[in-house]
Amino acid sequence: MALQMFDKERTLQMRQKLIGQSCRLFFSHEPLKIVKARGQYLYDENGTQYLDCISNVQHVGHCHPSITKAATAQMELLNANSRFLHDNIVQYAERLANTLPQKLCVFYFVNSGSEANDLALRLARQYTQNKDVVVLNHAYHGHLTSLIDISPYKFWKLEGQKEWVHVVIALAPLPDTYRGLYREGHPNPGQAYADTVKNLIDEVQNRGRKISCFFVESLPSVGGHIILPPGYFPKVAEYIRAAGGVFVADEIQTGFGRVGSHFWAFQLQGEDFCPDIVTMGKPMGNGHPLACVVTTKEIAGTFTANGVEYFNTFGGNPVSCAIGLAVLDVIEKEDLRANAVRVGSQLKKLLKQLQAKHTIIGDVRGVGLFLGFELVKDRVALTPATEEAGLLVQRLKERHICLSTDGPWANVIKFKPPMCFSMEDAERVTEQIGFILQAITGHIKISLTIQLNVLY
Ligand SMILES: Cc1ncc(COP(=O)(O)O)c(C=O)c1O
Fold it and tell me: Using CB atoms within 10 A of its CB, is residue 84 exposed (0-12), middle (13-18) or buried (19+)?
């Protein structure tokens, strides 16, 4: 039976009535109804095309035919419980292992980033027999209760900080060389920021508490698209291990070649650096719910030794794994990492050219197709230009380009497009940003009512 198509107004009314209002929409003041998509383009109910600069889940492009084909073929054949032996899960684990340091070789397949992070927490705690967790301020690690607890981005607005969570905040703001304590020009910001984590660890241990892990996004996303200084992770890992904890890298936003030069963003921190646990999700299934935790034999061994089965009804089913394999194939065949390097550096160059013309652009940062630029009211005080950022996103949407804001002050415009984003797309979006900035910086005093799109 064909699905009935409602007019947009009716869809909106039904959504308001039937769907929890805390499930927010993009552009909530004037949402888009998208009815089909291909590659990096979205189409609304009237056939209007939008350039998608924000869908990091549809990693190899919306509705990629190879992914659809792999999913359909496997669905026609079998989608059984992962307690039966099946080739897809082992082949997929082996392919993923080939992208990772040798030490990371035991996989658990799950269905969402939150499930992956929750399991990572269990693994870290079981292995270390410690409970406490060290996180960066503004971090987001998922929507489960356990993860809200370790996500300052959420818990500051809810019940607050639990006694077993330690936020690298007063001692060290985000390891951000634009806005943080140690900025560009500092001889070794990586070491300096890592030392502030060490100070926190010492303080926590002096209170008799025991640390299970440092839980961190390889590139903090909702924290404002931060590129961590070189040397930071290896030093923090050294300190956290010395304190009896393990290093968990959340690659849910950043994995699968988004940074171009490497398959995983933690690899930007050096060949020799290896986390103890890595979690992955969003881009993994190109939109199909597929996520994973990988860890070492030792950590997995301790988890097994507790004698309790880890059973996940849908995790690692043959269809999910067929899709995961197809995503890896497309990344390779279409050389999407090279595309991320090429298009990402062009986009960054164009954004830097805009920065030279518009003082409101305080910083342009990123790697591959994980890019952001920060709007500030002045370049010395770095006062966030939040209103202007919201207005820019709104105006871009009117010009059929989807972008959104991020960061604690919603003043960072973030790019995480499907990896097939092209040079022409980069030129189109930067040209439009230039026009809009020209127009809005002249009219900035006009009072604005903007509903900010805080998306992730
Ligand atoms: C860094 C990070 N970790 C974890 C999650 C949670 O993933 P999911 O929404 O698939 O549960 C997200 C989702 O936005 C995320 O950005």
Answer: exposed
